[in-house]
Request: fold
Amino acid sequence: GVRGEYSLVDASAATRRFLAPSLSLGTLYQLSGPYSLGLNTAFTERAPNYEELFASGIHQAAGIFEVGNLDLKSEIGRSAEVSLRRKAGKMEARATAFVQDFTRFISLIPNGSFQNNFAVYAFRPISAVLYGAEFELRERLPWSLWDGVWEFEGKLDLVRGFNRTDKTFLPRVTPVRETVTLSYRGNAFGAEVEVQRSESQNQLAANETRTPGFTALNLAADLPLKTVLGPFQLTARLN
Reply:
């Protein structure tokens, strides 16, 4: 894959133009039996957006004071990914490992100061590396309860980020997460129960506080309806 992106970011403070090329290469190799091996590599550039360039104020949703950087250049990174997949009958599984190396990474970093009682975070270009792994399992269950299909899905994902410029961890990195989902799909209705656990984050950047772990419970149900106006679907969610 080859992509070229031209971006124009215009504001009263300044006008910036960016040309960001990207190149990717991937292959999927069939191993013996139900196994396959996927390999992907990429070189990417990403133009900074208007927030990263021009921000200067309180970000209410995040609870921080953001400061942009008019001198930012395009983000430049290289990545590699390898995945082992298994697909046999009613079961699919995949394990993936990846690494992303950035010679120029646009990071939102706390500088230790406060503005209007909000911690100040500034966009800075740094050298960084991110690496991690993902595991996923999906299997059709042999249950004959009701007339539909039961399915189990389990996921685990982890990512680590390191700021090589300051020799610290990257800020605001997602912690280790485990997710378990049980779903039912039938002609009369569908339902899903999902439990997601986010572990505590102790790998902190400078001026960053520890985030405790938490568990989220998500419930969903859908009911297909046939009316004179056509088919509809009634959906309910509780997160």
